[in-house]
Amino acid sequence: MNLAESIQQGDRRALARGLTLVENETPEGVALLAALGSGGTAHRIGITGPPGAGKSTLVSALIAAWRATNATVGVLAVDPSSPFTGGALLGDRIRMLAHTADEHVFIRSLASRGALGGLAAGVYNAADLLDAAGFDPVLLETVGVGQGEVEICRAADTTVVVLAPGSGDIVQGMKAGLLEIADILVINQADREGADALEAALQSAVELRDAVAPPIVRTIATRGEGVPELRALLDERAAAGAEVLAARRLERARARLRAAADRHRAEAFWTSHGEALETAAVEVAEGRLSAAAAVSRLLEDERR
Amino acid sequence: MSTLDERPIRVLVAKAGLDGHDRGAKVVAAALRDAGFEVIYTGLRQTPEMIVATALQEDVDAVGLSLHSGAHMSLFPRVLELLKAQGSDQVLLTGGGIIPEADVEALMALGVGQLFGPGTTLAALTDYIRDEVMARRGVGSAPPHP
Ligand SMILES: Nc1nc2c(ncn2[C@@H]2O[C@H](COP(=O)(O)OP(=O)(O)OP(=O)(O)O)[C@@H](O)[C@H]2O)c(=O)[nH]1
Ligand SMILES: [Mg+2]
Q1: Which of A 15-34 lie inside 8 A of B, CB atoms?
Q2: ipTM of the assembly?
Q3: CATH class of A38-243
């Protein structure tokens, strides 16, 4: 049996191996996704928000909610890689331990691997693979504070932004970031002081948007409170969603293709211009050339 | 080397047994991260079954088990047995704690990797894991243990 068949038969070790192949963008991974098809039926739900808001705890509570109705749940939990060493500490699973031994739940921790501006291409591939392997929903947890998380909404059909009391300051400063990508806003840790103030701040912030204001849900993830309501909103989107989700998927496909093409172009460019870069860098460092002029020259060279 | 051989080394750091602090395991996890590894950290009181289920889903190269409960002679063999049972033979099982020399030898004879006592430097640990994992990746078909 080949890897694709094993994955389709529900072999978890094969799936784990497959995820490694696609995460690392190997030729075998590309072939695997081609053999399986990239799914396209699972509801992909992005869960983002500031550090410590309770995203992982909420993911765990959501897994429980879906398991109660026999869904098979896939989770990708992304944490940042150190830009200096490339290392990463992936600790989201610690909040999801209750599901470790459940064979209908598959959790994979991924490092962001220095992807500029958000998610590594491997994360999109991994979501495709879980989707193709029959997991539905597929949950994607990422840390977000206002910039890079625009990416998560491109990887997901639905984006849930999780905030907690104390993130009020963040709300002030993130008008253009987190709030705009939210399809659903969650006020988690609603048992803590400040939930009302946060809700008021969110209300007035979302009213300023031109788009339809996202629903706001309060949760206490540690106790599972508010989770049925959140799940109902998600189910509603999945059910009503054919059109909404199709539009989102088109956008996602576009962004992915563009990113892949950009990477390809950049790689080709630097492969042929690596030396010219070095020469120009020396000139810029010595003050003989401005960086802007150096870039023009490199691009000029390319056109020749 | 292919991209696959060059991928970051993934290590699961878990604390087995019932004793209640994980400071040591956290220090090790941070050191491995600083050495460029992708470290999956699952914290306290992991059962052997949880450890191997996590190792499988995360497709790790190595499992580092920290324990101070004196249960090493049951926990290490059990984890090793479960790893083999699920086909994760390639995975390096290593770890640390206060383990008498005779027990270390017995465990290594079973196929457990090097075990590190309280005096070891973090550099020795990371170097060992890197060398051992790269050797296992490089010689895919060779038996994982000498
Ligand atoms: N009081 C209270 N604490 C909560 C709630 N949800 C989560 N927590 C706690 O908040 C802390 C952080 O929770 P996580 O789920 O790890 O948060 P996170 O957003 O995933 O954190 P990062 O992944 O590190 O960004 C933990 O100690 C949780 O137990 C809640 O509803 N109420
Ligand atoms: Mg988390």
Answers
A1: 16-17, 19-21, 23-26, 28
A2: 0.90
A3: alpha beta
Assess contact for B97 and B67: CB atoms under 8 A. yes
Give the CATH number, domain containing residue B98. 3.40.50.280
CA distances from A100 to A16, A137, B56 (A): 14, 17, 11
Cα–Cα dist B40/B55, whole Å: 9
- Pick the closest to residue B95 from B65, B61, B132 (CA basis): B65
**Confidence category of residue A20, pLDDT binned at 50, 70, 90:** very high
Cβ-defined contact of A88 to B4 (cutoff 8 Å)? no
If you count DSSP H runs as helices and E runs as strands, how many of each does chain B have, helices first?
A: 6, 5
SS3 content of chain B, % helix, strand, coil (to 5): 45, 20, 35
Number of domains present in the structure of chain B: 1
Q: What is the torsional sign of CA A39, A40, A42, A44?
A: positive
For residue B54, tell me if it sits in a domain. yes
State whether residue B140 sits within 8 Å of chain A by CB.
Answer: no
A92 lines ligand 1 (CB under 6 A): yes
Domain boundaries, chain A: 1-37, 38-243, 257-303
Which among B131, B134, B132 has a CA at the least distance from the CA of B113? B132
Is B8 within the bounds of a domain?
yes
In a domain, B88, yes or no: yes
Average pLDDT rounded to a whole number, residues A227-247: 86
Asked if residues B51 and B12 have their Cβ atoms less than 8 Å apart, the reply is: yes
In a domain, B145, yes or no: no
Tens of pLDDT, residue by residue over A174-220, are: 545 778 888 999 999 999 999 999 999 888 888 877 677 899 999 99
For the entire predicted model, the pTM comes to: 0.88
pLDDT tens digits along A258-283? 877 887 888 888 888 788 888 988 99
Beta strand pairing call for B62-66 and B38-46: unpaired
User: What is the b/e burial string over B113-144, where b = at least 16 CB atoms within 10 angstroms of the residue's CB?
Assistant: bbbbeeeeeeeebbebbbebbeebbeeeeeeb
Q: How far apart are CA A183 and CA A46, in angstroms?
A: 10
Ligand closest to Cα of A52 equals 1
Contact A50, A189 (CB under 8 A): no
Residue B78: which domain range? 3-137
pLDDT, tens digit, 9 for 90 and up, residues A141-162 = 988 765 555 667 678 889 999 9
